[in-house]
Design goal:
The complex is a heterodimer of chains A (about 110) and B (about 120). By secondary structure, chain A is mostly beta strands. Chain A is built from no helices and eleven strands. By secondary structure, chain B is mainly β. Chain B contains no helices and eleven strands. The chains are: A mainly beta (about 110), B mainly beta (about 120). At the A-B interface, strand 4, strand 5 and strand 10 of A face strand 5 and strand 10 of B.
C-alpha cells in the first residue's frame, strides 16, 4: 500500500498568513493526488485534484503543487473559514490512502 | 444539484450485520464510479470500497474484504454497503462519495455520513 505522510500534524496561524502543508507519498504517484478540507462534524470537501487543479467553486487562495512523491498545499491569505483539518489522498492505485491530516488552528 | 444521502447506520453488536444505503440525485448515477470512505471517531479518513458504474470493477481495503460487500442499483440511483461480521474497529462515520468524472479516485461530492457503532 502507498503510505501518505503529511506535515506538520498541526499548525497555528493568523488571519492573513500564508500556510503550506506538505504531503509525501511512499512511492511515485505522478500527480494522482487530491487535497480535502474538513470541518468538525462535516463531510470532507474537495479543494485540489490532480495535484494542482482547483476544484470548481474553491477560492483561488488555495493552490497545490508537486509531482512524484512530494506535494504541497498552500493557502495564501488565510480567512477565518479556512481553519479546519486538511487531508491529502493518493488515487494512483488501490487501496486509495489518505494522509493523517493537518489541523490548522487559529493563533 | 448533486446530492448524496446515506442511511442505515446505527448500533450493532460485534459479529452483527448492517446495510448502509446512499441515495444519489442531481447527476447521472449509472455513469458514475462510487466509493465508501469511513472515519473512526476522532481519527482520519479511510477509503473502504469502490465500485464502477456498471459494477464490473469492485475493490476493497484489506481490513473489510470478505466481510463487506459494495453494490449498486442504477435503476434506483442507490449505492449500498452490506457489512457483516462487524467488529469494534468498524465503528465510524461512513460516507458515500462520488468519483470525480474526469479524475478517477478523487471524490468530488460526499454525503453527510451515517454513524455505525459496533459495541456490546
Amino acid at each position: 500500500d502507498i503510505q501518505m505522510t503529511q506535515s506538520p500534524s498541526s499548525v497555528s496561524a493568523s488571519v492573513g498568513d500564508r500556510v503550506t502543508i506538505t504531503c509525501r507519498a511512499s512511492q511515485d504517484i505522478i500527480t494522482w493526488l487530491a487535497w480535502y478540507q474538513q470541518k468538525p462534524g462535516k463531510a470532507p470537501k474537495l479543494l485540489i485534484y490532480a495535484a494542482s487543479s482547483l476544484q470548481s467553486g474553491v477560492p483561488s487562495r488555495f493552490s497545490g503543487s508537486g509531482s512524484g512523491t512530494d506535494f504541497t498545499l498552500t493557502i495564501s491569505g488565510l480567512q477565518p473559514e479556512d481553519f479546519a483539518t486538511y487531508y491529502c489522498q493518493q488515487a494512483n492505485s488501490f487501496p486509495y490512502t489518505f494522509g493523517q491530516g493537518t489541523k490548522l488552528e487559529i493563533k | 444539484e448533486v446530492q448524496l444521502v446515506e442511511s442505515g447506520g446505527g448500533l450493532v453488536k460485534p459479529g452483527g450485520s448492517l446495510r448502509l444505503s446512499c441515495a444519489a440525485s442531481g447527476f447521472t448515477f449509472s455513469n458514475s464510479r462510487m466509493n465508501w470512505v469511513r472515519q473512526a471517531p476522532g481519527k482520519g479518513l479511510e477509503w473502504v470500497s469502490y465500485i464502477s458504474g456498471s459494477s464490473t470493477y469492485i475493490y476493497y481495503t484489506d481490513s473489510v474484504r470478505g466481510r463487506f460487500t459494495i453494490s449498486r442499483d442504477n435503476a434506483k440511483n442507490s449505492l449500498y454497503l452490506q457489512m457483516n461480521s462487524l467488529r469494534a474497529e468498524d465503528t465510524a462515520v461512513y460516507y458515500c462519495a462520488r468519483d470525480h468524472p474526469v479524475v478517477r479516485g478523487i471524490n468530488d461530492y460526499w454525503g453527510q455520513g451515517t454513524l455505525v457503532t459496533v459495541s456490546s
